[in-house]
Specification:
Helix content is 37%, strand content 19%. It contains ten helices and nine strands. A six-stranded parallel beta sheet has the order 1-4-3-2-5-6, sandwiched between helices. It has a three-stranded antiparallel beta sheet with strand order 7-8-9, covered by helices on one side. The structure holds adenosine monophosphate (AMP).
Length: 291
């Protein structure tokens, strides 16, 4: 089905035909990969794409390869009609909505593994997740051949993995990071927030609050280790089960033990009931002394 102003295509061949016609007309193309259940965070990526590119393609594909066997692939929300309605109110021209068979036909055997930056943090708790992400994003980038592709900073490690993969494979695309869109109480928008009960929804903003407080303390000169420990205890006391809460180098994601002269990033994942939430914040380097 299609919505006014928005074309919906489901095959790689049709996607390529449409993109080739735009290319022939000299248009630049932006790609916004998503798993659907669209919210204002996704729409911020579409807006960022519009600023840089003449045409915007939004892909909607719940990628089975990035879900673990005990994760929520079967129950992940798939409100296709509502998603098309939301997209048709944006500047996006094309929704690419492939089936699993279209993306992974029988015999599909290739996987992309990004070592280093794709290890630890989320990978330690979701083994194979970033292989699934890198594989599907590589396919989407090759299928669409955009000038730029847009990813949220909310999934910071994913953004770094995709950037590394595009560089390593010489994909001629700019990977653009877009700041996290939040609820007024600080909770990062996520399709998975729909899983939260009313009580859990009230507790969820503590994740962002704990990160903000910890980032402020570290920025103010406090040693990271005790700050992180206190943040973990505060979250645990409130009933959020902390998977990790760590300070990493913002570019390499290498662990940061003491505040160095490089930008850092504070990253966390917690479980609240059956819902897994992630968030992250920048920790700027100390201002240079004026001596
Ligand atoms: P998803 O549909 O969850 O796979 O997300 C698709 C893209 O939207 C990814 O690049 C996410 O990082 C990005 N995204 C998800 N939530 C947000 C948010 N709250 N703010 C900005 N970008 C987001």
């Amino acid at each position: 089905m299609s919505a006014p102003g928005l074309a919906v295509v489901r095959s790689v061949a049709e996607l390529r035909r449409r993109v080739a016609a735009w290319r022939a007309a000299g248009d630049t193309i932006g790609l916004v990969p998503t798993m659907g259940a669209l919210h204002a965070g996704h729409l911020a990526l579409v807006a960022a794409a519009r600023e840089r590119c003449r045409r915007t393609v939004v892909s909607i594909f719940v990628n089975p390869k990035q879900f673990g066997p005990c994760e929520d692939f079967a129950t992940y929300p798939r409100p296709e009609t509502a998603d098309f309605a939301k997209l048709s109110a944006t500047s996006a021209e094309l929704a690419f909505v492939p089936s699993i068979d279209e993306m992974y036909p029988e015999g599909f055997s290739t996987a992309i593994n990004v070592s280093g930056i794709g290890e630890g943090l989320c990978d330690a708790h979701r083994p194979g997740h970033f292989d699934g992400v890198a594989t599907v994003v590589a396919k989407l980038l090759i299928q669409t051949a955009p000038d730029a592709a847009f990813f949220g900073e909310k999934d910071y490690q994913q953004l770094m993995v995709v950037r590394r993969m595009a560089r390593d494979l010489d994909l001629p695309v700019e990977i653009v990071g877009v700041p996290t869109v939040r609820e007024p109480d600080g909770l990062a928008l996520s399709s998975r927030n729909a899983y939260l009960s009313a009580d859990e929804r009230r507790l969820a903003p503590h994740l962002n609050r704990a990160l903000r407080e910890a980032a402020a303390e570290i920025t103010g000169g406090a040693a990271p280790a005790p700050v992180l420990e206190r943040a973990i205890s505060a979250l645990t006391d409130r009933g959020l089960r902390v998977e990790y809460l760590e300070l990493r180098d913002a570019a390499t994601l290498a662990p940061v033990a003491s505040r160095a002269a490089r930008p850092a990033r504070l990253l966390a994942a917690v479980h609240l009931g059956r819902t897994r939430l992630i968030d992250n914040l920048p920790v700027p380097p100390p201002a240079p002394s004026r001596s």
